[in-house]
Amino acid sequence: MPSPPHSQLRYSRRGLLGGGLALLTTLCIGGWPGTAAGSFRPDQLRLVMRTRYGDSGSTILEEWFTLLERLASQPLRTQLRDTNDFFNRRIRWLDDIDIWGQEDYWATPLETMGKAQGDCEDFSIAKYITLTHLGVPTRQLRMIYVRARIGRRRVTQAHMVVGYYETPTSEPLVLDNLLTTITPAAQRVDLDPVFSFNSDGLWAAGSTRSTANPVQRLSRWSSALTRMQEQGFL
């Protein structure tokens, strides 16, 4: 995934079903975590983090717990903004091959915070999980796979963001590691959506009807979900 520039990006709302399915096949991407089942176990998270990543990882995890506590009673806009800022400021963008030795690995929030590194999927997963733990309904959140035109040469690369939808047909607000601010989708002028998904469904760009079960269709989601359950998120 691309390293973050500081320029505005474009978001086109046209449907790209054919390209989306091709990209899905090419990337073999995973599904998207939710918090519907299981239990949140902070002590288990602390134990796993300290065992795997030591003091540095534990420090970020405790900051994350503090974030959850502080934002629990805050307005939604504050929850979105501060969640976006938390990870954008603490996590260094890096390719999966450099972090994990794999071309495409979807890290859990614990793994991302433990390494303090991640690519666009890792940023998005961590933000999504944080918002669901804050009580934002999963129906209002989606992972959005896009084609991003990056830099002066407008090189097109696959990228991922989180979208918040006030209603199913609303223009989403985009949480991204490419920009420091949350913007309406119409202002992201060089992002083209391919497909989106959450813990409940998968949508072609521009569609209001889910086309598949993300857990069954998206292989890496199952792996990420299993690891999150083992670590104590779910």
UniProtKB/TrEMBL annotation:
Superkingdom of this protein's organism: Bacteria
Pfam families: Peptidase_C93
PANTHER family (UniProt xref): BLR5470 PROTEIN, PTHR39327
Name of the protein in its database record: Transglutaminase
Taxonomic source organism: Halomonas marinisediminis
